[in-house]
Amino acid sequence: MEEFLKQYLDPNFAITFSYLIKIFCIVIPVMISVAYLTYFERRVIGFMQSRIGPNRVGFFGLLQPIADALKLLFKEIILPEKSNNFLFFLAPLLSIAPALAAWAVIPFDFEMVLADINAGLLYVLAMTSIAVYGVIIAGWASNSKYAFLGSLRSAAQIVSYEIAMGFSLVGVLMCANSLNLGEIVMAQQGGISQWYCWPLFPLFIIYFISAVAETNRAPFDVAEGESEIVAGFHVEYSGMAFALFFLAEYANMILVSILAVIMFLGGWMSPFSFMSDGIFWLLAKVVFVLFFFLWFRATFPRYRYDQIMRLGWKVFIPLTLIWIVFIGAMMQTDYAEYFH
Amino acid sequence: MMQFSDYIFYFFSSILILASLKVITANNPVYSALSLVLAFFSAAGIWLLLHAEFLAIALVLVYVGAVMVLFLFVVMMLDINLESLKKGFWSYFPFAILIAGVFIVEIYLVVSDKFFLESQIESFGTSKSNTHSIGNILYTDYLLPFQIAAVILLVAIISAIALTMFGHKSHKAIDPKDQIKVKRNDRIRIVKMKSEKR
Do B60 and A130 touch (CB under 8 A)? Predict the structure, then answer.
């Protein structure tokens, strides 16, 4: 695309412009998937609970997300009187910005990536870890007890599960010998038996559960906890400010699913060697993983807070550490080929 | 003639200096903590300009993503009385100047060392993956200091846990072992009653 643009434009400007186009090509599909993920969620949970779900607006209710977005756009943004104005409006931005920035290093297909950086895995971890600031600042700036409780819960929860998540990704980078996400996928070439979810099965499960906790989704949604603290950190937000938190949560959900697919389920590689690889495999796997998020929400009751902490610190972190040592030891034996 | 990267450097440096000043001058401790986050970010940006991508991302991951979250966690819950903290500012001032002077001399000594020559920074290079070169250096040339740092961290972890484990036990958390052992008959008693006639 750069070459094409350079025929018509100044070379420096052409590079910038082509990057802008690529960014739009990522952000707009992400936003559309977020909108239709909410539709998918309401339909799936509806069917799981023997309800119909949204089916009035448009064909099969397909225009429902757009109607919701319009409604939120036109709602008034209410500013609590004694809140901290600057931080109150900064918080939604701080939660949506990292949720979108992390997409820069995601490879969608062979060499189909915006920024092919060497430390891609670390970059994604860093971006998901700073998403917590939006939640903390929102809770503090609203000057409300419920919001503050929600933000404190979320801060402790995200910091604890980030460690387990980081350790389970250490296993992946030990197998792939690289922090570059594209190279991690390429290392899983050769059909379903080569995917990292087999040698790293415990880490895969721990990664996925930590991902649910990181994104504050049910059954780990104590930061919102409607039954205890009303709506947690975003209780004072309305209109578009609330919608930004909502967008960030769902964009993060898609992001952690796509990461799970890249690290453990072979990314864009096809499961059988006689079928061709391609981006549609990536999308199909992501939808499959996302379905689990919705399934969990429809099925499990909310965890108690002290049990969340116990699960994170006393179960997941020791388990991941043991498995990392196990992989390291196995790589020195004759079975090393199964761990590469 | 300034290059584009020079402009980025001055942009990040000015934000870094302003944010650091804000850390020590802000009235609200939450603003101080958030300014420190901004300062870390700008420092990470400057490191990225030097092609030290591993260090830059690790700074964001560790300090911004974990350490500062816990800082904010504590600062938000504390009810700090600023007036009492500001008392006696001028009487401590000469001592503060002395310490600042010592720090400036120390920083000068570190920065004027041979490791900070421009040729040294360039030799780090862009050809090789950052993570690989840091791993190579850490596990060969600096193996012993690295291990000592790891042992110190381990001791710190153990002592932190020991501080919370021993001493008075004031929390009311229930032991999961006891929870699993509970049988139905420990908690409820079913009483059969005959329905009474009207």
Answer: yes
Among chain B residues, CA nearest to A138: B76
Closest CA to A41 of A291, A300, A214: A291
Kindly tell me if the per-residue pLDDT of B126 is higher than 60. Answer: no
ipTM rounded to 2 decimals: 0.81
State the virtual CA torsion across A123, A129, A133, A134 in degrees, nearest 10.
Answer: 80
Q: For residue A129, which residues of chain B lie inside 8 Å, CB to CB?
A: 60-61, 64-66
Beta-carbon contacts below 8 Å between A and B: 66
A17 within 8 A of A5, measured Cβ to Cβ: yes
A109 phi, psi to nearest 5 deg: -155, 180
Q: Which two tokens stand for residue A319?
A: 């388990």
Minimum CA–CA partner of A133 in chain B: B69
Distance from chain centroid for Cα A314: 24
CA-wise closest residue to A290 among A260, A262, A254, A264: A254
Chain A residues inside the 8 Å CB shell of B157: none
Burial of A281 (0-12, 13-18, 19+ CB in 10 A): buried
d(CA A154, CA B148): 34
Bond prior to A219 in cis (omega within 30° of 0):
yes
Beta-strand runs (E) in A207-280: none
* DSSP secondary structure code for residue B60 in this structure: I
Answer yes or no: is pLDDT of B170 > 70.
Answer: no
Q: Do B66 and A162 touch (CB under 8 A)?
A: yes
What distance lies between CA A247 and its chain's CA centroid?
A: 11
Rounded Cα distance, A306 and A286, in Å: 31
Q: Of how many residues is chain B composed?
A: 198
pLDDT in tens, A96-132: 898 888 888 888 877 777 777 888 888 888 888 888 8
